[in-house]
Amino acid sequence: MAWSAPITAVSGELLTAAEYNASVRDNLAECAPNIATQEGSIFQASAPNRIVERQVVSHRVPEEDSIPTQQTSYVEIRNAGPFVTAVTGASALVFVTCEMAGNTNTQCSASFEVSGSTRISASDKWRVVHDAMEKDHFSRYSVARRVELNPGSNTFRMKYRTGGLGPFRFRNREIVVIPL
After folding, report:
1. How far apart, in whole angstroms, are the C-alpha atoms of residue 40 and residue 8?
2. pLDDT of residue 70
């Protein structure tokens, strides 16, 4: 049932139970407090006069991992991901962050891919990139990107690549997805 405009009360006019229920009870049933099933939910308009509950999801991998050699396309590393699965509408905000270190004058990158209802490959268009000025010096980077999606269940996974000879080290990797 969708929310509908409430009736306008007129002095001296009596409402039937059906009119009252349609205007008050049924509309209240379409409000966020009634729809909420999980703590921390956010709500989004899915159509005119309709809202849906969405969950913000995140995953963090604190361990340090490395890519030992030159890897020019995006790949998994030993402790894969991090990754999360979320039920989304037509878009989402994706935040990725990690600490990166490498050899002097070399570059390493972290990005994300989407699979499930939508397929999007990891890309330099939304990467975090580290240009090492000092050998083995960690720097922390973050990026946020809004992506267009097919509504449904989508998995968001961080991926990594290098621009020169390794090893490259990554730690405290995190992905956060806010479904829209």
Report:
1. 35
2. 72
Structure tokens at 11: 């002095």
Q: What is the sign of the dihedral through the CA atoms of 94, 127, 142 and 145?
A: negative
**Cα(112)–Cα(35) distance, integer angstroms:** 31
Q: By the 8 A CB rule, do 109 and 166 touch?
A: no
Residue 9's nearest CA partner among 22, 17, 20 is: 20
| Residues 103-144 pLDDT 10s | 767 788 999 999 999 999 999 999 998 887 777 788 899 999
**Strand, helix or coil at 160?**
strand
Per residue in 82-111, pLDDT (tens digit) is: 999 999 999 999 999 999 888 767 788 999
d(CA 49, CA 5): 9
